[in-house]
């Protein structure tokens, strides 16, 4: 037994190992491949009158979360995914072998129990069991219900223990599943085709982000894990004749950890041929409202200090005017020195290699923090949008929109750039930024430019990540991932005897 365990825990584990051996001596397989369950706990509660009246024998299964009583009468709280059902074990009514088995099971073990449904004198719905089977013998004790997983690192490292003891945490991920299912259903109902595009890429494109790098042994080349959910691939699909596509998948960004950001996470992106950003804004508003209703059952949310109501028609906010109103700077005419001076005045950190686009974005972020939303941010400068189409009436700006909710961008959409010469020039500008030290600047994807040269129709694209879910749930980003990435646990040295 590992010396890092405390004495009490060591003794508990040794006792469980002893009970495991006693079960084997009884001829019991403590880890069978199947349960005889034919009813879930919720089913028993829903059909209690019918089950009591019929005196039908049923089998339930789950994890023992509590055990009470001694001698001739015992009570067990058995939990499955749907809830709790009480099992009553009464000496004389239980098969002899089942009674021997029951003597060896304890809190944390998985069992199934067969018997008739009844109400106790206290009015609690229960199953009077005559047969007990072990499904899995737990070798470690359960965490204390009240004083257990308080340490955040331990909770994330052993998230399964939190799921075991916290119905609220399990329910959170039921909501998250509904969140993505609502997204998928909405897109399909609106005529979009779900597609799958590569996760490993020769050129990481479609976003401003620092990629993860890995090695492909068979081809003997370094490749990148994608930083967008197939943006440049879905645009190739538009070139190839598809009109409406979407993808829900994982993407990866080798960036810092914060309340709002992940390193690997799910994102949805759609591309819509023959439409522009204004069409997509209307679709996105309906999509978000649909998701909110299906996953959370409401349009009204309390997110940090913000009260947010997603219903109705969302207003727009002009990017350049917002900065000029708050900062007194017109970012279209101001040079980089003016932007740097303002950022220094605001005590905002920036890198020496940052150019006008990055500096402008840092200024905007200071304003964004104060906006409750929902509102659509529009009319971004071209410097902050290397893949968006320029506006015809003012080529300094692009046809882009971002939903702003609770002080943060909750998605990103464009009228996509389909001029191959303009795209090539912007990729070259981004390549210069990378050479100057900007790890998040975009790579020059020559193959994508060649695809555009075959012609891509007017197209609007949009994407949002699971960060939207964490915001609507008002929880930190890591709380909304089942198993967030952790550093490897440091092992304590084994003491020599």
Can you put this structure into words, describing what you see?
- The protein has 497 residues and is an alpha+beta fold.
- The protein has 15 helices and 19 strands.
- The chain has helices at residues 7-25, 41-46, 48-54, 96-104, 152-157, 159-165, 167-189, 231-239, 277-296, 319-327, 336-345, 356-368, 420-435, 446-453, 467-472; strands spanning 57-68, 73-80, 83-90, 110-119, 125-136, 193-194, 200-201, 213-216, 221-225, 244-252, 264-273, 300-303, 306-309, 316-318, 375-378, 400-405, 408-409, 412-415, 459-465.
- The strands form four sheets. Strands 6, 10, 11, 14, 15, 16, 17, 18 and 19 form a nine-stranded mixed β-sheet that branches. Strands 1-2-3-5-4 form a five-stranded mixed beta barrel.
- α7 packs antiparallel against α9 (277-296), α11 (336-345) runs parallel beside α12 and α13 (420-435) runs antiparallel to α14 (446-453).
- The longest helix is centred in the middle third of the chain and has 23 residues, at 167-189.
- 33% of the residues are buried.
Structure summarized in a few sentences:
The chain has 497 residues and is of the alpha+beta class.
Write the layout of secondary structure elements.
Elements: H1 7-25, H2 41-46, H3 48-54, E1 57-68, E2 73-80, E3 83-90, H4 96-104, E4 110-119, E5 125-136, H5 152-157, H6 159-165, H7 167-189, E6 193-194, E7 200-201, E8 213-216, E9 221-225, H8 231-239, E10 244-252, E11 264-273, H9 277-296, E12 300-303, E13 306-309, E14 316-318, H10 319-327, H11 336-345, H12 356-368, E15 375-378, E16 400-405, E17 408-409, E18 412-415, H13 420-435, H14 446-453, E19 459-465, H15 467-472
Parallel strand pairs: 3-5, 6-10, 14-15
Antiparallel strand pairs: 1-2, 1-4, 2-3, 4-5, 7-9, 8-9, 10-11, 11-19, 12-13, 15-16, 16-17, 16-18, 18-19
Helix pairs in contact: 6-7, 7-9, 11-12, 13-14
């Amino acid at each position: 037994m590992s010396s890092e365990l405390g004495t009490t825990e060591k003794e508990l584990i040794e006792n469980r190992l002893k009970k495991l051996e006693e079960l084997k001596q009884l001829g019991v397989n403590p880890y069978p491949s199947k349960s005889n369950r034919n009813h879930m706990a919720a089913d028993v509660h829903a059909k209690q009158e019918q089950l009591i009246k019929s005196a039908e024998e049923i089998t339930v299964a789950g994890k023992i979360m509590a055990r009470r009583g001694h001698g001739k009468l015992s009570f067990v709280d058995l939990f499955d995914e749907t809830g709790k059902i009480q099992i009553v074990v009464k000496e004389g009514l239980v098969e002899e072998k089942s009674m021997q088995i029951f003597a060896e099971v304890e809190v944390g073990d998985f069992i199934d129990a067969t018997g008739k449904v009844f109400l106790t004198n206290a009015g609690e719905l229960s199953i009077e069991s005559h047969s007990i089977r072990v499904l899995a013998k737990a070798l470690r004790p359960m965490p204390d219900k009240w004083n257990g997983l308080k340490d955040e690192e331990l909770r994330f490292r052993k998230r399964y223990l939190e799921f075991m003891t916290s119905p609220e945490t399990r329910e959170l991920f039921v909501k998250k599943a509904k969140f993505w299912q609502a997204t998928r259903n909405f897109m399909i109902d609106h005529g979009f085709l779900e597609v799958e595009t590569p996760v490993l890429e020769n050129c990481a494109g479609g976003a401003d982000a620092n990629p993860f790098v890995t090695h492909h042994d068979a081809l003997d080349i370094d490749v990148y894990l994608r930083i967008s959910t197939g943006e440049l691939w879905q645009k190739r699909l538009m070139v190839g004749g598809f009109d409406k596509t979407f993808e829900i998948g994982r993407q990866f960004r080798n960036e810092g950890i914060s309340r709002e950001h992940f390193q690997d996470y799910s994102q949805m992106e759609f591309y819509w041929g023959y439409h522009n950003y204004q069409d997509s804004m209307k679709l996105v508003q309906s999509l978000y409202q649909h998701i909110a209703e299906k996953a959370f059952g409401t349009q009204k949310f309390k997110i940090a200090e913000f009260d947010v109501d997603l219903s109705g028609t969302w207003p727009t906010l002009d990017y350049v005017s917002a900065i000029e109103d708050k900062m007194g700077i017109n970012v279209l005419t101001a040079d980089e020195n003016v932007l740097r001076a303002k950022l220094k005045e605001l005590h905002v950190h920036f890198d020496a290699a940052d150019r006008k686009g990055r500096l402008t974005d840092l200024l905007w972020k200071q304003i964004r923090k104060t906006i409750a939303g929902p509102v659509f941010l529009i009319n971004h400068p071209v410097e902050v949008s290397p893949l968006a189409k320029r506006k015809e009436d003012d080529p300094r700006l692009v046809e882009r929109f971002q939903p702003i909710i609770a002080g943060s961008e909750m998605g990103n959409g464009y009228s996509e750039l389909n001029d191959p010469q303009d795209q090539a020039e912007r990729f070259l500008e981004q390549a210069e930024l990378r050479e100057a030290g900007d790890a998040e600047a975009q790579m020059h994807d020559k193959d994508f430019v060649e695809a555009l040269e075959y012609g891509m129709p007017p197209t609007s694209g949009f994407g949002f990540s699971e960060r939207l879910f964490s915001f609507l749930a008002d929880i930190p980003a890591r709380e909304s991932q089942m198993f967030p990435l952790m550093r490897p646990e440091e092992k304590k040295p084994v003491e020599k005897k």
